[in-house]
Amino acid sequence: MKKMAPSIRKLFDAAKKARLHSYSPYSNCKVGAAIRTKSGKIYGGCNVENSSYGGAICAERGAIQTAVAAEGKIQIRELLVVTDANPPWPPCGLCRQIISEFAAPDLTVHLMNLKGQQISVAFDAIMPQAFTPEHLNKE
Ligand code: THU
Fold first, then answer.
1. What is the DSSP code (8-state) at residue 44?
2. CATH class of the region 6-136
């Protein structure tokens, strides 16, 4: 595994730790995510599936839910997703919308797998022209 920048290492470790708790008996795909908020704190999440299938909650949304429960309104400065997949998985469309609500203007998303493969992209690049609170004049 390539040497990681210390800031990414912390997110990677938090996402991997959360991933271990993934409840994914239907897809057998364990996903972990971690976000760093403006406060500097890191919050992890994992995917939680449901026998109704459609009720599945992605790891990214789990991490955001935990952060909002702890801090209230958040700004996401960095996000990392980890799977065992090659290439690493990006956030799904629904998660991109939820991330948009709280994304810092320069949010970077790190897509990683357990082997340490890393693709880092600007959130803007994977969610151009997002619908955000500004459209409702709520910012
Ligand atoms: N999943 C995530 O947790 N995050 C993503 O970005 C993509 C998909 C989950 C949902 C489901 O539990 C499993 O991965 C397969 O789609």
1. E
2. alpha beta
Nearest to 33 by CA among 125, 102, 121, 95: 95
Q: Would you say the CB of residue 70 lies under 6 angstroms from ligand 1?
A: no
Tell if the pTM clears 0.85, that is, is over it: yes
**Tens digit of each residue's pLDDT (9 = 90 or more) over 112-137:** 999 999 999 999 999 999 999 999 98
Q: Are 39 and 71 in contact (CB under 8 A)?
A: yes
Q: Number of H helices and number of E strands within the chain?
A: 4, 5
Q: Where are the domains positioned within the chain?
A: 6-136
The identity of residue 74, as a single letter, is: I
Tokens at 17, concatenated? 């730790």
* Pocket-testing residue among 30, 31, 79, 126, ligand 1, by greatest number of atoms within 8 A of Cβ: 31
